[in-house]
Design a protein that fits this description.
The structure is a homodimer of 766-residue chains. Chain A has 766 residues and is an alpha+beta fold. Chain A has 21 helices and 38 strands. A 9-stranded antiparallel beta sheet of chain A has the order 8-9-10-11-19-15-14-13-17. Chain A has a 6-stranded mixed beta sheet with strand order 20-33-34-38-35-36. A 4-stranded antiparallel beta sheet of chain A has the order 6-12-18-16, with no helix packed on it. Chain A is globular and about 80 Å long. Chain A starts with a helix and ends in a 7-residue tail after the last strand.
Chain lengths: 766, 766
């Protein structure tokens, strides 16, 4: 299946290559990768970092049923599951790869025949407006998606600009035609999630409105403006949760051809001339602040009706972004993996402002981004590890604007905290730590954020890390760790806070702010406070200094960890592996310990209880499908067996990334999983962002040219590259042997050639 | 009781008189008038046309119980009922005199002792944060309200600027002190009315937030900023309708001292040092657009903490407004009635924009009022009759800004309609007709709205009146009346549309727009289409031209009328009473018919079924307590017995307006009932706004000087005025006998002296 799919993509986009002078990277992108099982990616149309992610949703599993969590909803974090037989419609906002969700705003669905305002069931799609589809009639490219809706034989195509989704529906039958505009629909929906929906029919082809939701983001509003390519003849709506008030307050009939529709769960429909089979095109712009802003966004980005031109521009934008690395890999499937990883890495954070710079701030007031692009969707517990470090190399300008957006968040935050996990002017507090500081530190240490801006950012980092009421932080500051009795995931928090504190100290050192550096360098050692020498694991501890009696390093639940057991989390001292290894008994004992992790069997009972981890994402007891262990394979570099790092990372690349819909072993997590791939495939990885160091592994590319924004290029060459030659004899930078297991940011930014000499046997050291 | 209360007011405000050079009119204002039974006024603090109406709410009757209308809620349209024994708290927005309701935003309540977050019951106020109070410990003045909260012996005082409510709470006991900030509370509340509430604790004395509601206004948001005069020590909240999502999504404890509170029904509390008895002062600013706007409004209007200065400025503003008419009436109770009527007339429409001019428009986008003050709360079915015509004489500049606000509404309306009944950026569609056109017409005909602005306004009027899908208007345009089978209240609508069309025609005539004048002059005759010569009444008619068979002119329900029966509504041809009288059998038959109306007995069965009408507001079968008949007493002027108008109006003044809490015979309806009083007490009344004519009645003042904005004054004198001398022998304007039953707008605006020669017997004609 995977070879087949890769070929389809290669053939289908071949046409584009000819029209472009630059190599065609877009041909290698397969947006379907990760859409089966737990990748949680979406196949729809979007431009790099676009505000609009226009994508099919295949089902509508409620997040809560009778107030209880519905486990089925987890599969629908991105709205689409490859194995589903039907499509409910096309909505405009999707997270890529998250393990919890929201969005799915402004669903559009074309239908013919008798009007249906319920989606119907997947078993019997004709019972509602949803339609059967098959992958044989589906194509997904960067910024282009098409599918045949089989129920009514309608060809649905879509593309997008940053803020505008562009739909084209081609009808092959005659008969009454309808476009359903569903504001009830959402991802991770539940009774009470929609707090208000609003539709205005401005004229016979223009609609505006908004959808206000609660849920993960508690005060989210998505404003939209919609234009049809031709006038509709009639329209109407139904509120699927009508206000009891409106039951009392009867006025003249407002359900049909009345241009204002307000309710909690509005589904509107628009009827078009049935004698005609011309395509109906629809443009939907989003805005964070107003319907006026959304209308202006259409004017600014997609004033006309040239679908092909929008698609061409979108694919050119993708090619420019993907072209920041010119990679060569013999295996065409790996080319697909590489550029699809880049594609996934460049989906979020997403632009969050109108064309004129207005956006909604965390304080719920409107702001204007002055001199930068404002972004949202910061899945920082995931993305601080490799995605932002990848940006810091390949997209430093954009990464700086992301940091500026984070500083805006800080300024507007009543807590005076940088984001934890934020989206759409909301802090959702997801996961743990304050990993914004890692992202900012990495930019400061590498010299990409400087001057007063860097100093202000440092203040924000320090202030964030001193928020005593945040999630055990007061205790941590007082006694040096998060005590188990007051807080779940106490050990995970202690370990991650300690790394974050290191990151702050690194930035402070770079900026010559000794007081801050000292304060946080001291805190960075707090990981020692939860290490239990008697077991050799990190272990929950109570405020009185006693370790939790009942302890099993295989278990996660009730053990002071989150999304990982002690076996994995105990290795989380990215900023001082040497000290950790020493504490754990020295290099060789530690290497054996790591071997045990990769080779052990994690029983189902422990695995099943651990949130956000699936069997596919596990190698032995090592969990690649979730983030806490993403640095672990590189820890052999601190032992006498760096070759084990080389071997492991190549093995992980093979096992966890496939050019197939089920190609991702776990949630892509807004690009973190993909960024791991990219770094690793290029031959190095940022174990401790903010250190300025990148641990050398084993490149999977034959060669790659990173086109740096400073005008230089870094060429990576893997001499004697092959699937078997996974070991690195030696590494040379610009002809000079690299006498250590890492390279530095200045070395990368300096450009030149980084040469890996590959071998099939462990017969040398780099 | 009423004399006693009048005296209290007179004595209590005596002090103010001395400090002002102008006569003290504020002393005559008694905001408690209308707070008992059905006046639906509120006693709290507000400045003229102020955005903030800071007033006690005495109970919280839900609007719907189990989805059914709760009749008890009707008493609480303004939040306060005089006979209630307890106060729940002080909220910042109140309609004055409406018969349906909304608002009651941002309730504040001081308490001591154990914290209580439920209001408790009126029977046992100590069961919650509400408190017992008594009228002996209560004082209501223009822009000042005080009451002793007996449960905890707290003196509550309040005053306001346009956008800021200023509270002062004086504690007489020691012990834990709390301020409850209740965003759950509302007027006409029901399950589902609050869609979101939001509180941010900006620092230890500043709070911001908003309350989003549905209900009468379907997309209303009130933003606020609150400042305490001293820091609180701790705080917290409870969401009384917690999201099921939050039950799933457990994070660290955010219920106490966590500065962000989001939910559907948030009640927050703030704890103050208990050792101290210093007053706690609170300022609460409102904004239509943002918390940033609310904070700026505090800065702009009430930056300091001088309660007395704010109160002085507010009362001076009132005295300036009230001083626009210097009235003399011997009976001190009538002086209270007169100036309280002016007070009530000057409460709404209310200013609806930030200090910088920003406001939320009907399109839900933010706008900036350029060169005018934006208003909201247009209860036009009521206020077009006498309130706006009163403004057009006494407040033409402000009335013009109200019209500009209505034009803004039109511009932002997706229907391209002027407001029907609008408040807070919402059209609530209350009642019938499109009476904005009457208000605009009156201003155009009188020369107060001119040039391109007037022409644009005329376009808006005509466009409004051509909205076919609006409430039977398509049928009306097609066949000349609203047919009974498709529409409730068909006769009322036909009659009111016909008058409105007359108003449009008048404005068009004035502006020389013959086509529009002709179109609407023709439509203005449509009242004839529902007159049934066989009964002599207006009568429901079906589309095929047949009158409804079962017809009882005493009944309202199912009879094609709204808030009035055919006996009252049949007289509604204000723009052509002569033609109507002729149709009804001529002058003397008509006079007898009117006599019968005033003398008949309306059986309870008919009265009980008629919404918005109470026994107190009825004289015979004539309903003064609601609007449709407000012009009726003046119709004798078209017969040979104008003396009956004189007699009736004086009788109505006596019976329907009393200087007592139950002094209003019906809802004051945003000042319409009071405006009727004012016109009538001055001796003339606008039977048909837009005609430029004012029917002469019988003045109740001894004299009055209207200080016109054009710099002139109109002096009204009633020679030989007394309670018995209600008949008018003759009327002289500037010494010249007025040889007709009316005066004109140019005569009023021209100034001079209008002299009524009063008599106890009908021995002359004017």
């Amino acid at each position: 299946m995977r070879n087949l799919l890769a070929s389809i993509v290669l053939i289908s986009i071949a046409a584009i290559a000819n029209s472009q002078s630059r190599p065609n990277y877009v041909q290698y992108v397969n947006p379907l990768i990760g859409t089966r099982k737990m990748g949680h990616t979406y196949p729809g149309a979007t431009v790099p970092f676009g505000s609009v992610q226009l994508s099919p949703d295949t089902d509508e599993e409620p997040f809560l049923i009778g107030g209880k969590y519905n486990k089925e909803t987890y599969r629908y974090c991105a709205g689409y599951q490859f194995d589903d037989p039907t499509i409910v419609g096309f909505s405009h906002t999707h997270f890529s790869g998250t393990g919890h969700s929201d969005l799915g705003d402004i669903l559009i669905m074309p239908t013919q025949g008798v009007l249906q305002l319920e989606p119907g069931s997947a078993d019997d799609p004709k019972s509602g407006f949803r339609s059967a589809f098959s992958h044989g009639n589906e194509r997904a490219e960067a910024d282009y998606y098409r599918v045949k809706l089989e129920d009514d034989d309608i060809l649905a195509e879509m593309t997008a600009t940053t803020r505008v989704g562009f739909h084209r529906y081609t009808f092959n039958r005659t008969g009454p035609r309808h476009i359903v505009l569903d504001l009830k629909h959402g991802i991770y929906d539940y009774d009470g999630k929609n707090v208000r929906t609003f539709v205005r029919v401005e004229n016979d082809r223009t609609i505006t409105g908004f959808r206000e939701t609660t849920g993960w983001a508690r005060t989210r509003t998505v404003y939209f403006a919609l234009q049809f390519s031709k006038p509709f003849e009639s329209y109407g709506y139904k509120d699927f949760d009508p206000s009891p008030y409106r039951g009392f307050w009867r006025k003249f009939d407002q359900s049909k051809n009345f241009p204002e529709m307000i309710g909690k769960q509005v589904r509107a429909y628009f009827d078009f001339d049935s004698g005609n089979k011309d395509p109906i095109e629809v443009k939907v712009a989003l805005s964070p602040v107003s319907t006026a802003g959304a209308l202006a966004n259409i004017k600014s980005e997609a004033p006309g009706w040239d679908f092909e031109a929008i698609k061409r521009a979108g694919q050119k934008a993708w090619n420019d972004e993907l072209g920041k690395i010119d990679a060569k890999i013999d295996d065409p499937n790996e080319m697909v993996n590489f550029y699809t990883a880049m594609y996934h890495a460049f989906l979020s954070p997403t632009v969050y402002m109108d064309a004129d710079g207005q956006y909604k701030g965390l304080d719920q007031n409107n702001h204007r981004a002055a001199g930068f692009t404002n972004y949202t969707t910061f899945s920082l517990w995931d993305t601080y590890r490799a995605l932002h470090p990848f940006f810091n190399i390949v997209q430093p300008r954009r990464n700086r604007d992301m940091i500026r957006s984070m500083i805006g968040h800080y300024d507007q935050s009543v807590h005076k905290m940088l984001p934890v996990w934020s989206h759409y002017a909301n802090e959702n507090w997801c996961m743990i730590g304050y990993h914004s500081v890692s992202v900012v530190s990495d930019a400061i240490v590498s010299g990409n954020l400087t001057g007063p801006e860097a100093n202000k950012a440092l203040d924000a980092m320090a202030q964030t890390a001193r928020t005593k009421y945040y999630d055990g932080l007061g205790d941590y500051m007082r006694i040096g760790y998060v005590p188990v009795e007051n807080n779940g995931s106490s050990v995970s928090k202690t370990l991650e806070y300690a790394y974050d504190d290191y990151a702050i100290a690194q930035a402070a050192k770079k900026l010559g702010r000794k007081d801050v550096a000292d304060e946080f360098a001291k805190r960075a050692g707090n990981w020692r406070n939860v290490f239990d020498p008697s077991t050799g694991f990190m272990r929950p501890k109570s405020a009185d200094g006693k370790f939790l009696a009942e302890f099993d390093p295989m278990k996660t639940e009730g053990q002071g960890f989150i999304e990982g057991n002690s076996w994995n989390y105990s290795l989380y001292v990215p900023h001082d592996p040497a000290a950790m290894i020493k504490m754990m008994g020295g290099k060789s004992k530690f290497a054996a310990h790591l071997d045990e992790l990769f080779n052990m069997h994690l029983p189902d009972e422990f695995f099943a209880e651990t949130e956000d981890i699936t069997r596919e994402g596990i190698i032995g007891g090592y969990v690649h499908g979730n983030e806490p262990s993403h640095h672990v394979a590189y820890l052999y570099n601190w032992t006498d067996a760096p070759w084990k790092t080389q071997e492991r990372v190549r093995m992980i690349l093979k096992h966890q990334y496939k050019a197939a819909p089920d190609g991702l072993g776990g949630n892509d997590d807004c690009g973190q999983m993909s960024a791991w791939y990219l770094f690793t495939a290029l031959g190095f990885y940022p174990v401790a962002p903010g250190s300025g160091e990148y641990q050398l592994g084993s490149p999977a590319v034959s060669s790659a040219v990173i086109r740096l924004e400073n005008g230089r290029t870094l060429r990576i060459e893997a001499v004697n590259q092959s699937d078997k030659n996974v070991y690195v004899d030696r590494v040379e930078l610009n002809g000079k042997r690299v006498g250590r297991t890492f390279i530095t940011y200045p070395e990368i930014a300096g450009g030149g050639t980084l040469k890996f000499f590959m071998s099939s046997a462990v017969d040398g050291r780099q």
